[in-house]
Amino acid sequence: MGIVVSLDEGRDKKPSLDALTALVADDMKAVNELILKRMESPVALIPQLAGHVVSAGGKRLRPMLTLASARLCGYEGKRHVTLATCIEFIHTATLLHDDVVDESVLRRGLESANAVWGNQASVLVGDFLFSRSFELMVEDGSVAVMGILASASARLAEGEVMQLLTANDTETGETAYLEVITAKTARLFSAACRLGAVVANRPKVEEEALDSFGMNLGVAFQLIDDVLDYSAKQATLGKTVGDDFSEGKITLPVILAFRRGDDEQRRFWRRTLGDLDQKDGDMEHAFRLLETHGALDDTVERARHYGDIARDSLGIFPDSEIKGALVKLIDFCIERPY
Fold first, then answer.
1. Which of 120, 250, 256, 312 has the fewest CB neighbours in a 10 Å radius?
2. What is the rounded distance in angstroms from the CA atom of residue 97 to the CA atom of residue 119?
């Protein structure tokens, strides 16, 4: 259901992840093997449910960032494989929890774990994956690493709670929205990247550069995700279009359209998102308002701004094949199909 809003007419062919994927392919194979090994449990439901989420597709973008950042910093050991696995377990745990909170029935085009096994099992297996990630951190033995990942996990949870508090609140402003996505999405991106400099024992300035790269890339990524919810075909996105609208989530496209609309249009947003009083045709009307006020285009422009900051953050690193692939990753995250 819904209207597909085209924002990319006349654009060149979309950038891809191919270059980065090829450069970290061997390390990613090791990560996938470790994921399967550390998902094992004598409680059969745990690997069954966790495997459903892990094997459902996805680009493994966050662990790839750890692997690529370590390579950018010249690291030649194996710790980055373990830490990339930590990152993926944390991310997967949050997906399980998020789908319960959002009552989602699809995840990457397949039935969500909570739709198959129920909310209780999904929450508990999410807890298991969090615990596994912290076991891996302890095995790594670095206090600095544990500090980075523990802090990222705490901020991620705070971001999800902040999003819960702003849901259905049409008075939410752009500043509050950015605080939410920085915590719930960008902080794990920045942690994933910073780990690469930490394991390579690089200077603080390189740690901070990779932290900035990941943080701004994560903000750009989430901005585009919020655009995609109102503009992408379900087959492309792997989720039901309009989920954010149906759930009353206040994202930047809505914030912009709400501010730019007249009193009647603001009453529409308050009814449909604030009160969740939604009728047939409301979703299509919401899409039209977003298009009328340029809310989707302007959100993409915001994403490009953060992408530019991420690109600048890589400036202190010498040109290399892996640096070029990370620059292409920025373009990929922003120019995904919408």
1. 120
2. 9
So what's the pLDDT on residue 225?
92
Q: How many CA atoms lie within 13 A of 203 on its CB side?
A: 4
Inter-helix orientation angle 61-72/79-102, to 10°: 150
Give the residue-averaged pLDDT of 287-305.
96
Contact 113, 52 (CB under 8 A): yes
Global confidence as pTM: 0.91
Structure tokens at 287: 């899409």
C-alpha pair distances (Å), 145 with each of 54, 80, 225, 232: 24, 11, 28, 37
Give the chain's domains with CATH numbers.
18-333 (1.10.600.10)
Distance of alpha carbon 212 from alpha carbon 191, whole angstroms:
10
Number of residues written out for the chain? 338
pLDDT, tens digit, 9 for 90 and up, residues 75-114: 999 999 999 999 999 999 999 998 888 777 766 667 888 8
CB-count exposure of residue 280 (10 Å: 0-12, 13-18, 19+): exposed
Q: How does DSSP assign 150-201, residue by residue?
A: HHHHHHHHHHHHHHHHHTT-TT--HHHHHHHHIIIIIHHHHHHHHHHHHHTT
User: What pLDDT does 238 receive?
Assistant: 55
Tell me the per-residue pLDDT of 132-184, one tens digit each, with 9 for 90 and over. 999 999 999 999 999 999 999 999 999 999 998 898 999 999 999 999 999 99
Contacts of 147 (CB under 8 A, 6+ apart): none
User: How many angstroms separate the CA atoms of 92 and 86, rounded?
Assistant: 10
pLDDT for the residue 37: 95
